[in-house]
């Protein structure tokens, strides 16, 4: 038996170039991949250092307006940054919430003063904003959220409610909270978005003991009569779902990119292992039972990349409705491809698939995040059944 040791040289298979990507986007891919590789090969790969370096290079706010310190590009570019970092094994999960959801919403609907206050920090990464919509009793049914804002005398807001699974609240200076106003307390959700600074009195957080090994922890939040100034509200309180989805479509595209990066990373490791590991006459990668599922995973990831690109382009064109369907489909396709890719990669490494040294076992849990969040596989299938196919609802 030839033992296979070491974890070096795990460069993932490069995605095949697509005719839709510009020369600048390809150059960005190459540069981000190089940063990720340097970071992943470093001995004390510290995600905070990577966050700072990526911020300094302009990658974290590549989608935000230039006049507020961003790169002036779009979600297409931000997704590409997350995918390439993930493909090197060092994804930055908070890219999904801080510049993609919060940055987009503020850039599109914030006042001039709000943009000046928050965007430059989000753009260079010196300021992080978390995002909380999920509630313990509402779950996938966002229309049931009960976090409520009431007007206090003088125009302040007072916010009360609970949130769960909110990522990175400890790392973030602020959290954007989705609530509803008192006079829209019941019925279909008319969401309002409030920015809550971390140390505001009444804003409590408790970390949830997750099975994930990542820099970003998830928190349960309690908002107990949290008093906020009038301009904590971003956008119009009567705007309805439009403002929220302006942030949630990018979130789905970014989760797809997160899944694609992880899937590529896993396949890259497995392919390298399968080329070298030999227990009979030929390397295990010569057995079609090992090769075909890896080929299949590669194909599925490539297909999901195309859908992700389509969704990102629609977001960047401002076609919120078209982007809604495409972003859901992209998130679905990428998450499913990622879960299958990780499963096959772990299997390819046999026992080593579950060792810490090879770093694949932890991805079994991490890959499931993309299937559950920010919207579960079933809720996307429901959406496509109803919205795209016109089938009746069961709920
Ligand atoms: C690592 C991680 C990070 C997260 N980060 C954030 C964050 O930063 N901010 C935030 O707000 N939230 C965050 N979330 C929460 C995430 O968005 C929710 O977990 C997700 O929306 C599912 O909600 P739930 O967990 O309440 O599941 P539930 O809604 O209870 O669903 C449980 C199961 O039932 C299924 N189900 C529910 N309704 C239906 C139906 N009508 N038809 C078919 N099946 C159905 C679901 O698909 C799922 O499989 C995070 C979650 C995780 C795991």
UniProtKB/TrEMBL annotation:
One of its GO terms (molecular function) is acyl-CoA dehydrogenase activity. Residues 1-22 are annotated as: Disordered. Its EC number is 1.3.99.-. It is an enzyme of class 1 (oxidoreductase). InterPro entries: Acyl-CoA_dehydrogenase, Acyl-CoA_Oxase/DH_mid-dom, Acyl-CoA_Oxase/DH_mid-dom_sf, AcylCo_DH-like_C, AcylCo_DH/oxidase_C, AcylCoA_DH/ox_N, AcylCoA_DH/ox_N_sf, AcylCoA_DH/oxidase_NM_dom_sf. Signal peptide: none annotated. Its cofactor is FAD. The keyword Flavoprotein applies. This is Acyl-CoA dehydrogenase fadE12. It comes from Streptomyces rubrolavendulae.
């Amino acid at each position: 038996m030839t033992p296979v040791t070491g974890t070096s040289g795990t460069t993932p298979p490069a995605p095949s170039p697509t005719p839709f990507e510009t020369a600048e986007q390809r150059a960005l891919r190459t540069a981000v991949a190089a940063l990720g590789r340097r970071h992943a090969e470093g001995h004390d790969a510290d995600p905070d250092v990577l966050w700072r370096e990526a911020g300094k290079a302009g990658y974290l706010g590549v989608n935000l307006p230039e006049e507020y310190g961003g790169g002036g590009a779009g979600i297409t570019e931000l997704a590409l940054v997350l995918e390439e970092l993930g493909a090197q094994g060092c994804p930055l999960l908070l890219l999904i919430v801080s510049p993609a959801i919060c940055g987009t919403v503020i850039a599109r609907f914030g006042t001039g003063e709000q943009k000046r206050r928050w965007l430059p920090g989000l753009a260079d990464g010196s300021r992080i904003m978390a995002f909380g919509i999920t509630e313990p009793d509402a779950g996938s049914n966002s229309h049931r959220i009960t976090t409520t804002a009431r007007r206090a005398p003088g125009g302040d807001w007072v916010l009360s409610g609970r949130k769960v699974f909110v990522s990175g609240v400890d790392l973030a200076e602020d959290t954007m909270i989705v609530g509803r106003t008192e006079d829209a307390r019941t019925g279909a959700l008319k969401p309002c978005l409030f920015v809550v600074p971390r140390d505001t009195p009444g804003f409590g957080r408790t970390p949830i003991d997750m099975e994930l090994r990542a820099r970003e922890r998830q928190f349960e939040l309690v908002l107990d009569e949290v008093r906020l100034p009038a301009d904590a509200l971003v956008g119009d309180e009567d705007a309805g779902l439009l403002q929220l989805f302006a942030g949630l479509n990018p979130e789905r595209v970014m989760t797809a990119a997160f899944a694609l990066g992880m899937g590529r990373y896993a396949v890259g490791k497995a392919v390298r292992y399968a080329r070298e590991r030999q227990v009979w006459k030929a390397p295990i990668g010569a057995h079609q039972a090992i090769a075909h599922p890896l080929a299949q995973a590669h194909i599925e990831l490539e297909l999901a990349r195309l859908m992700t690109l389509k969704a990102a382009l629609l977001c960047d064109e401002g076609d919120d409705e078209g982007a809604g369907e495409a972003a859901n489909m992209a998130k679905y396709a990428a998450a499913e491809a990622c879960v299958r890719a990780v499963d096959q990669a772990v299997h390819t490494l046999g026992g080593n698939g579950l060792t810490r040294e090879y770093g694949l076992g932890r991805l079994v849990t991490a890959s499931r995040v993309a299937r559950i969040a920010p919207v579960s596989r079933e809720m996307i299938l429901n959406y496509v059944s109803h919205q795209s196919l016109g089938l009746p609802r069961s709920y």
